[in-house]
Amino acid sequence: MSDPSANNTGLDGARAWIMRQGRWSPFEVAFWLAVFIPFFFFPTYLTLASQIAIAALFVLSVDLILGYAGIITLGHAMFFGLGAYAAGLLTKTGWGEPLTGLLISGAFVALVGFLVSFIIVRVQHLALLMITLGLGLLTMELANSMSWLTGGTDGLQGVSVWPIFGTFDYDLWGYTAYSYTLIVLFIGVLIARRIVNSAFGLSLRGIRENLNRMPAIGAPHQRRLQVIYTISAGMAGVAGALLTQTTSQVALDVLSFQRSADVVVMLILGGTGRLYGGIIGAIIFMVARDQLAGINPQYWYFWIGILLMIVVLVMPKGILGFLAQIWERVRR
Predict the structure, then answer these.
(1) What is the pLDDT of residues 89-113, one digit of tens each?
(2) CA-CA distances (angstroms) from residue 224 to 72, 106, 251, 290?
(3) Rounded Cα–Cα distance for residues 36 and 31 (Å)
(4) TM segments (predicted)?
């Protein structure tokens, strides 16, 4: 017979762990203070900084399903691209208000993600990889063939976004775009932080580690995976809508396999299953791409491949995981 006191002790331990994880660490505070550096020291790179913030939100959405729930994907650009097109097409109807456009685009993509999740939760491993890849490729070809709606290979033109709150228009230097994307990224991190540092987040980790054992302890894994997949899709859709609103155009490559692959590379670089791992990976990848493309426009991806190989061989848990290991050794 099980000891009730032992069960209560386990629950108390879990609650204490969740409370500790929920506290803001000095690293997090320092990170969010550092995001203001481009405003003062690198104002000419604010456009790049806004692109990094969008990429970071996209990577965060992938980390929720890959790093925490163990759902492998190679087609998450489908949701990113659908969000981008939804925001663009919304402005074509005459409604260019950015905040409501962001919410509508995110809600629409979350609904698509919910419908897709019924397929995703029923397959694993290689089949899951192929299904996500296939869905991404099908969506891109569908957008390409529906040129009357999406613009096809020419992209969606004539996107007109209103000033934020009717006051803050997008300036040439990117001050408004970076501020806007940074605030949305912060809200996305708060939501993700609340999810992963909760009982629901713990159950996702349990599903990732041992899918078959979770139902035995009363955790319906399919329902939980559907929930996190829907949230992840909506977050990716918001990231795509941000790209449309800050660039006033939608290119067909928002749905490309290359974008799905890039986001996985960013996540591996920073470290999966770590809230800020994907964000750090996005910063490193985007800055490296910008600098390397300036040095060698044709072969810059070669050096990205070298960087990825070094990280995988030397730091298998990603850059943030490697730094965390060093910090633990220093503390001991």
Answers:
(1) 999 888 889 999 999 999 999 999 9
(2) 16, 20, 34, 38
(3) 9
(4) 29-48, 55-79, 99-121, 128-149, 177-204, 263-288, 300-327
Please count the other Cβ atoms lying within 10 Å of the Cβ belonging to residue 305: 10
Check pLDDT > 80 for residue 211: no
The answer to whether the CB of 55 falls within 8 A of the CB of 285 is yes
- Please say whether the beta carbons of 49 and 175 come within 8 A: no
Residue listed under structure tokens 């995988």:
312
Residue 36 CA: distances (Å) to CA of 44, 50, 184, 290: 14, 12, 15, 20
Helix, coil or strand: residue 250:
strand
Indicate the pTM of the whole model: 0.92
Kindly report, residue by residue over 281-332, the tens digit of the pLDDT. 999 999 998 888 878 777 788 888 888 898 888 888 888 888 888 888 887 7
Instruction: Give residue 301's identity as a one-letter amino acid code.
Output: Y
Q: Distance between terminal CA atoms of the chain? A: 39
In sequence order, what are the beta bridge partners of 164?
168
What backbone torsions phi and psi does residue 103 show, to the nearest 5 degrees? -70, -40
Residues forming a β-bridge with 250: 156
CA atoms of 54 and 25, how far apart (whole Å): 24
Task: Tell which residue, 18, 21, 10, 120, has the closest CA to residue 74.
Answer: 120
In sequence order, the 6+-apart residues with CB closer than 8 A to the CB of 194 are none
CA–CA distance, 58 with 77 (Å, rounded to integer)? 9
